[in-house]
Design goal:
single chain; 268 residues
Length: 268
């Protein structure tokens, strides 16, 4: 990111400043139990108020286990929550592990497998809708975050960031925690004055638990052309927060050597 002044650190922006690359400007709208079998206590891990969130958390945990370790957990969960509940976990696992678990369940619970498969089909349709909504909600938070910056909405911008968030700028020295980044934002934000980057071509992915999302996107700047942003969001309850964001210039390979030389000279 660039220098808003000769003696201050670089920061995100859409406009130019004297002697700087990117500087603020007026923004436009724009466990196991010792026997090798997972302990029953492990079933208490996803004890949360929302069944859907519990299924996601247990799926994430089972995703780290082998099929021989995960199948007993699935069976125990089915006993407590029904086959439909177990299917909600299975549908969130990677296909290869899910197939292995179903084979393992067929050996230990052959009479229930048909029920699992029927419930699995229903859960797959429901999970697709749920994941789609989670992606949409996460993407909207990022869009709203960028929009708040463009209109100089300090509270709207910082309020969409997690308490332990980090912002990484285009300068190697720009590694800010939220307190440091807040100090920077306070210097330049005012109503109608911030920095405007228009996001495009975002690719966003979700963890199995649905509580973490990571993404990359292109950013259009009126003054600096195309940049790239990458970030992580975390979800607490129904609220997504930006936990990390990194902004970089996109450097074509055919001019990379010249850029490296220029950076080297600037450090001398």
């Amino acid at each position: 990111m660039a220098n808003p002044s000769a003696d201050s650190p670089a920061g995100p922006t859409a406009g130019t400043t004297a002697g700087g690359t990117l500087g603020p400007t007026a923004g436009a709208a724009g466990g196991a139990d010792g026997t090798g079998t997972p302990a029953a206590a492990a079933l208490d891990v996803p004890a949360v108020s929302e069944p859907d969130a519990a299924a996601r958390q247990l799926a994430e945990m089972i995703g780290l286990l082998s099929e021989s370790e995960g199948a007993p957990l699935i069976a125990a969960y089915a006993e407590s929550n029904g086959v439909d509940g177990a299917a909600e976990i299975l549908v969130r696992l990677k296909p290869e592990l899910r197939s292995k678990l179903i084979r393992e369940l067929q050996q230990s619970n052959p009479d229930e497998v048909a029920e699992y498969m029927e419930a699995l089909a229903k859960a797959a349709a429901a999970a697709m809708l749920t994941n789609g909504q989670l992606r949409e909600d996460a993407g909207k938070v990022v869009d709203d975050w960028h929009a708040a910056a463009a209109r100089g909405d300090r509270d709207g911008y910082l309020g969409r960031m997690a308490p332990d968030a980090r912002f990484l700028g285009t300068d190697a020295l720009e590694r800010w925690d939220l307190e440091q980044f807040t100090d920077y934002v306070n210097k330049y934000f005012a109503p109608g004055r911030g920095w405007a980057f228009l996001p495009d071509e975002r690719v966003l992915q979700l963890s199995a638990s649905g509580t973490v999302a990571w993404f990359d996107e292109l950013l259009a700047s009126e003054s600096y052309g195309e940049l790239r942003g990458t970030g992580v969001l975390v979800r607490a309850g129904d609220v997504w927060k930006v936990a990390q964001y990194s902004m970089t210039f996109t450097v074509p390979n055919d001019v990379a050597e010249n850029v490296v030389d220029a950076v080297s000279r600037s450090e001398q």
